[in-house]
C-alpha cells in the first residue's frame, strides 16, 4: 500500500483520540516538538495541556485540545468542525481511544458490554464517519487504527468483551482500506502487544461487578495489575513508529508492534493455517 500524503511532516494536521495518557500523550509531545499541528481529543483538555507543559513540550500554540465524548456522535462531529476551522484540513487520523474490561461472559452485564462497545467500536465509527469525507474530498490522508494482538488471538478467557471489540476494529479497518483506496487514502491496522502505560492500573481498565467465584477472575485481575508495569512495549518507541509511518513511502496493511505481539501473531496464524490444511477435505465436502 503506497503512502498518500506528500506534504512535509510539519505541514500535516493530526487528529488523535485518547490523548490524556500513555501512547496518545507521548505522540502529542513528539508531534508538537516536530512542529506539527494537532487536534487532541480528550476527556480532560486542561490535564492534557498541563502534562505537556510538565514535559517541556514545544509549539503548544499548534495544539487544539478539545473536550470530546467519542461515544456521542454530535460531540465528535463538532470536534472535527473545530479542527477544520482551526487547521484548515486533516491529514492523519489516529484512533487510539479505548479501555479494557475483564470478566467471564457469564459475569458480564448488558451495561458492561454496551459501554465497552460504545468506546472501542462505535466511538471509532463516529470518528471515521466524520473524518473520511474530508480525506476523500482532498484525495489524501492516512488513518491509523490502534488495535491489539487480541484482535486475532486471546489471553485464554475472561477478556472476551475487550477482545471482541478489537476483532471488530480489525474488521472495520480491513474493509475501510478497500473503500478508501480509490481515493488515495491509506488505512493501517496496528496490533499492539503489551505496552508499559497506565492502561491497567490507571482509569482505562474496568472489572465487572458481577464476579462469580467459580471463574476465579480475581486471580487474573491481580496478574494483570502485577505484570502491567513490566510490559515489554515502550510507549515512546510506539509513538515514534506511528510518526514514522506518516512519513513512509510505503505503508503496510497491518503492523504488529512488540516482541510479544510478533510471537503471538506468528503462533496464531501458523496454528490457524495448520487447522485449515488438516480439515481441507472436510471443508471442501460441503460444496455442491
Automatic annotation (TrEMBL):
<dbReference type="Pfam" id="PF00106">
    <property type="entry name" value="adh_short"/>
</dbReference>
<protein>
    <recommendedName>
        <fullName>Short-chain dehydrogenase/reductase SDR</fullName>
    </recommendedName>
</protein>
<dbReference type="InterPro" id="IPR036291">
    <property type="entry name" value="NAD(P)-bd_dom_sf"/>
</dbReference>
<dbReference type="InterPro" id="IPR051911">
    <property type="entry name" value="SDR_oxidoreductase"/>
</dbReference>
<comment type="similarity">
    <text>Belongs to the short-chain dehydrogenases/reductases (SDR) family.</text>
</comment>
<dbReference type="InterPro" id="IPR002347">
    <property type="entry name" value="SDR_fam"/>
</dbReference>
Amino acid at each position: 500500500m503506497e503512502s498518500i500524503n506528500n506534504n512535509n511532516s510539519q505541514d500535516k494536521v493530526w487528529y488523535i483520540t485518547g490523548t490524556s495518557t500513555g501512547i496518545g500523550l507521548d505522540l502529542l509531545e513528539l508531534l508538537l516538538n516536530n512542529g506539527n499541528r494537532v487536534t487532541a481529543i480528550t476527556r480532560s483538555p486542561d490535564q492534557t495541556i498541563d502534562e505537556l507543559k510538565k514535559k517541556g513540550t514545544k509549539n503548544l500554540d499548534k495544539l487544539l485540545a478539545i473536550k470530546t465524548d467519542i461515544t456521542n456522535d454530535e460531540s465528535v462531529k463538532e470536534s472535527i468542525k473545530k479542527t477544520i476551522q482551526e487547521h484548515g484540513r486533516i491529514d492523519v487520523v489516529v484512533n487510539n481511544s479505548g479501555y479494557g474490561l475483564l470478566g467471564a461472559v457469564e459475569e458480564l452485564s448488558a451495561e458492561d458490554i454496551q459501554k465497552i462497545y460504545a468506546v472501542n467500536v462505535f466511538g471509532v465509527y463516529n470518528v471515521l464517519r466524520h473524518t473520511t469525507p474530508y480525506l476523500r474530498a482532498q484525495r489524501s490522508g492516512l488513518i491509523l487504527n490502534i488495535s491489539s494482538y487480541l484482535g486475532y488471538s486471546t489471553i485464554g478467557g475472561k477478556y472476551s468483551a475487550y477482545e471482541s471489540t478489537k476483532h471488530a476494529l480489525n474488521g472495520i479497518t480491513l474493509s475501510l482500506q478497500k473503500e478508501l483506496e480509490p481515493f488515495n487514502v491509506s488505512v493501517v491496522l496496528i496490533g499492539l502487544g503489551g505496552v508499559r502505560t497506565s492502561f491497567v492500573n490507571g482509569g482505562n481498565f474496568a472489572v465487572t461487578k458481577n464476579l462469580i467465584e467459580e471463574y476465579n477472575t480475581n486471580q487474573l485481575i491481580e496478574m494483570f495489575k502485577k505484570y502491567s508495569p513490566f510490559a515489554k512495549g515502550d510507549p515512546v518507541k510506539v509513538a515514534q513508529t506511528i510518526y514514522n509511518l506518516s512519513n513512509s513511502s510505503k505503508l503496510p496493511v497491518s503492523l504488529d508492534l512488540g516482541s510479544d505481539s510478533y510471537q503471538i501473531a506468528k503462533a496464531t496464524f501458523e496454528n490457524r493455517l495448520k487447522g485449515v490444511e488438516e480439515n481441507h477435505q472436510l471443508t471442501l465436502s460441503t460444496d455442491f
